[in-house]
Amino acid sequence: MILPTDSVAESAEKTQYATMDWGWVTWSITEQEVMVMVTDDFDDDCWSSSNAIRGSIEARLRRHGYTISREAGSPLIGLGLHLSGFGVGEGTCVASVTLYPLMQEFSKFGFGGFDVQGYFFRVLGEPRATVIAAPKEAIEGSLSNWITDAIERLLEDVDQNSSAWPASIVEE
């Protein structure tokens, strides 16, 4: 069968976009709920305010139109932040920070002879990560600045990756 040229092009376009991750489109719908999950593992009094950083992240997401949820199972998207660090020498802290967007999806798999199924978060795209060394009195500010920049880059990625989908594909 020979298809008209525009049908071949349309088919090729749909095939190309089928390999892209729908999670970016989901993240682009800013009226929805997002869950922010912060975990930290710090030693030597280098970190004290994961609740403050969570509040800062949530405020930034609200400014971009997202609603914050604290109830598991409710949101389709999430934002994970993992912080760990320790003291080095006199008054210096070293911190590792990883920020990753999450997408909730249904999964079913076997584990130890049992079928496990449910909604789980998976990492969407590549996590953003860095290591920061700073004096103890400056580590929270350094981490906060890096996290703020990483969230802005993430939101730019959401715009870029979701706009790569043509409206005709998204509407179908």
Task: Provide the fold topology.
Blueprint: H1 5-18, H2 23-28, E1 33-42, H3 50-63, E2 67-69, E3 77-88, E4 92-111, E5 114-123, E6 128-135, H4 136-163, H5 167-171
Parallel strand pairs: 1-2, 1-3
Antiparallel strand pairs: 3-4, 4-5, 4-6
Helix pairs in contact: 3-4
Structure commentary:
- By secondary structure, this protein is an alpha/beta fold.
- The chain has a single domain (30-164), classed as Double Stranded RNA Binding Domain, CATH 3.30.160.
- The protein is built from 5 helices and 6 strands; from the N terminus they run ααβαβββββαα.
- It has helices at 5-18, 23-28, 50-63, 136-163, 167-171, and strands at residues 33-42, 67-69, 77-88, 92-111, 114-123, 128-135.
- Strands 1, 2, 3, 4, 5 and 6 form a 6-stranded mixed β-sheet that branches.
- Helix 3 (50-63) runs parallel beside helix 4.
- The two termini are 25 Å apart.
- The relative contact order is 0.19.
List keywords for this structure.
172 residues, alpha/beta, Double Stranded RNA Binding Domain, 6-stranded mixed β-sheet, disordered C terminus
Count the beta strands.
Answer: 6
Q: Could you say which structural class the secondary elements and strand pairing correspond to? A: alpha/beta
Number of helices: 5
Residue fraction in strands: 35-45%
What is the gist of this entry?
The protein is α/β, with parallel strands linked by helices. It has helices at residues 5-18, 23-28, 50-63, 136-163, 167-171, and strands at 33-42, 67-69, 77-88, 92-111, 114-123, 128-135.
